[in-house]
Write a structure and sequence with these properties.
The protein is an alpha/beta fold and about 250 residues long. It has helices at about 15-30, 50-70, 145-150, 170-190; strands at about 1-5, 35-40, 80-85, 90-100, 100-110, 125-130, 130-135, 155-160, 190-195, 200, 205, 210-215, 220-225, 230-235. A hairpin with a 2-residue loop joins strand 6 and strand 7 (about 130-135).
Length: about 250
Amino acid sequence: MRIAVVQCRPLFDDPETTIATVAARLHWAQAEGIDLLLFPEAWLLGHAYDAATIRARASAAAAVVAMLCERVRAFPTTLVMGAFEASEDGVFNNALVIEAGRVVGRYAKAHPNEPGVTPGSRFPVFERAGLRYGINICNDANYPAAAARLADQGADLILYPLNNLLRPETAERWREKSLANLVARARDTGCWIASADVAGRANDGVSYGCSAIVSPDGKVVARVPELQEGTAVWEVDALAAPMRTTEA
């Protein structure tokens, strides 16, 4: 399966620009034969750590998701897009799996670190081009058991939408740690790992960007340069994953 991860600047409450950007990337993906395209965490309307802002964006998400699906329904590439969403069960930090203009699945962040966000409890596995994949989101990378839940279901690839827009001193502390977590999760699970992050400065914060593709042995095979917008592309082969072993 040919995958691409997108590193892009933070956007907030600007659905027209967001949807136009996604459509442009999907045009590129179609021309490049990309099977799956990954965007950052909560990028649809923007990430936040303020409960009122999160609720407002979650309430607006349904209409924006409908607009996005209508715009992208003609593209063959699977799109994975992050958004805060509201339901009768709470407010969730979700990753949406969109194919042919339809939301065919969702993963809710199991370990949310945003106020007022309900933890998810399901770890669905999807399939594209003969390869099984699942999703963890940002802070989930600190919890090996979350990745193991997917590997135990036969996932070959784990997607990590990230959003590392943080206060400068915090961003500096996580600058190397974010990638180290992804490498560790690859080695733990024997899965390919792919992450998409924001990059740049906004709202007194900075994200260096940790958009990368990591092989099952922990080698970083592709990465978008820090503080730059762009994509990283790789042909992910399930046969390249090593045999998984369980230690007593």
